[in-house]
Amino acid sequence: MSPNFILIFTIINFLGFLYLLYLILTKYRHLSSENKEGVQISEGIEKIKLIRFNPFDDVGGDQSFILVLLNKENSGILLTSLHHRSFTRIYAKSIKNGQGDNITLSKEEKSAILKTISD
């Protein structure tokens, strides 16, 4: 593949990620509901953490990242971007009570969730 194609593909992939992040934040930022007593319960995003890391030995720098967005019950989503010289992959995973919701998490993802909860 030509370097120009890889650059264009990476830029398009990143713009798609930004759009996905925008949609998630606009949906969950101001979400709230009322319980039986009429007390306002916030269900929106309250904890946000961005962790950068290097998952590949042949790529320098911490260009890959994990973005964790959790509510006060430690439920929400986790976005992982794995960047390599020849590709970029983005994964979205559901988090429920600080654990993967019927999905396996990597050690970096588990660590990012624990850091988000503890901050």
In brief:
With 119 residues, this protein is an alpha+beta fold. Helix content is 32%, strand content 33%.
Head-to-tail CA distance between termini: 43 Å
How many helices does DSSP assign?
Answer: 2
Shape: globular
| Integer average pLDDT | 79
**How many separate structural domains?**
1
Uncertain runs are 38-42
> SSE order, as H and E?
HEEEEEEEH
Structural class: alpha+beta
> Biggest sheet, open or closed, and with what strands and sense?
5 strands, antiparallel
User: Could you tell me the radius of gyration in angstroms?
Assistant: 17 Å
Question: What portion of residues belong to β-strands?
Answer: 25-35%
Task: Tell me about this structure.
Residues 38-42 have low confidence and may be disordered. With 119 residues, the protein is an alpha+beta fold. The longest helix is centred in the N-terminal third of the chain and has 26 residues, at 3-28. It has one domain. It contains two helices and seven strands, in the order αβββββββα. The strands form two sheets. It has a five-stranded antiparallel sheet with strand order 3-4-5-6-7. A two-stranded antiparallel sheet has the order 1-2.
